[in-house]
């Protein structure tokens, strides 16, 4: 007779089990059977609720099945707290910065420890940290002044105008020949050679009124009178808006 396999639950499944018992009011025996574990194991999971909740709040990887205790636990915890604060302030943090900070913490905590690449990889996996590209320029905006202007100044400018008569416009560049900046790869495939990025672009002006009843877009081209805009009144109107070269 074959021995039954021991089933190991992930941290997220531990939390689901706790919610089933405490929130959904399921019996512990029925919950243990649902997750394929023993009654005593389910009871032990309930006793670890505080640790599991703390792991989730620290943005830990809740898909892992065992919590590995690091021999440099104090350094890891201090680094995670620092990293959380750095992200909250919008700081740019790289692998090099993490290792430098870890080295500083080893001195402050009087720990004999040299941050290695393997340690860094395990720390990122344990805390669910990954590299992400920045998008846009939102962190450069003065949100406080913008909100004050919208609240106190903008309403006075709108007085006497219907929403359909209030317009806004902005321009954007379209690199229509550009390829994506990255690609999916098999694990272990280190080939990441890129190609020269084409700089061919179009400049587009997009504008609309406040109630959204009219929306238009104009492309800044090289021809003063493009042949594709010869027929309708709308085409003639768009042609008149095209910026002439020079």
Automatic annotation (TrEMBL):
Keyword Isomerase belongs to the record: no
One Pfam family hit: HTH_Tnp_Tc5
InterPro entries: CenT-Element_Derived, Homeodomain-like_sf, HTH_CenpB_DNA-bd_dom
Annotated SMART domains: CENPB
GO cellular component entries: nucleus
GO molecular function annotation: DNA binding
Gene3D superfamilies attached to this UniProt entry: Homeodomain-like
UniProt keyword list: DNA-binding
Name the UniProt record assigns to this protein: HTH CENPB-type domain-containing protein
HTH CENPB-type domain segment(s): 63-133
